[in-house]
Input
Amino acid sequence: MEEIKILDNYVVHTEGNYAKVVDTRTNKVIDEFNIKTEMFKQSLKKAGLITLATIILATSVVAGVKHKKANLEARTNNVIQVNENNPRQYQNLTFYPEEKEEGDSIYSNINKVYQNISSMGLKVPEFIDKPYIRTTIFVESSDNPNIPSEKGAEGYPQTYYSTWKDVFPDDSFRDFQRGIKNKERSIEFIVKHFLYLDKFNKEKCPGYNQMNNDEKRILLAAEYNWGQGKLQDNDWDLTKAPKETRNHIKKMQIAYARFS
Output
């Protein structure tokens, strides 16, 4: 999933024909729609966004949008202004569950997985806490397991069969297809994958044991998105990470602050 920033407070996330407007101050989806020019304009108006000229989406490559550029009628050097004096009422358009544990079915599955892992005698480091797992699902899949990424990552964890097999070596491809759409199984994958990355970093990453919890979470987010091998090959230098990974880290930090 790619994003296009609209001023400081709103971002449009795109995936194929699907798009949604997110208020970055609250990390809430305030509208979602198919990518067609008139529908998009109407959605922005409903979201409290006023077009001063025509809609700016992108003149560069955007995931799932490049081939639809003509339909979007994008124009450079146009702007979108936020009408802060006419806020929209969002209560009937809550596409994501509540940020905190109460009433959040994903959180209830996280609690169950942590209990199961504890019963196996496995210890989860304190920096791999429940809000971090909740954040990962939110950022990776927007809580929707049915939209694959442009690169083919799938399900709640937005992962691949090869990576899934690292955690669940006995799973068939059919098991994988079921598992990535099952909350409990997906959460178990994420937690165990992070445990593997933590072990890998302890053995391979210089200074890892001296990092604080926030630094370790940033490193794990980069590895989850880019791959631990690629990060190691680049001397663990996050400034060498691709833009997608750097943006992923920022999203994780923002969302983690909401879920914590």
Strands lie at 2-6, 10-15, 18-23, 28-34, 49-51, 80-82.
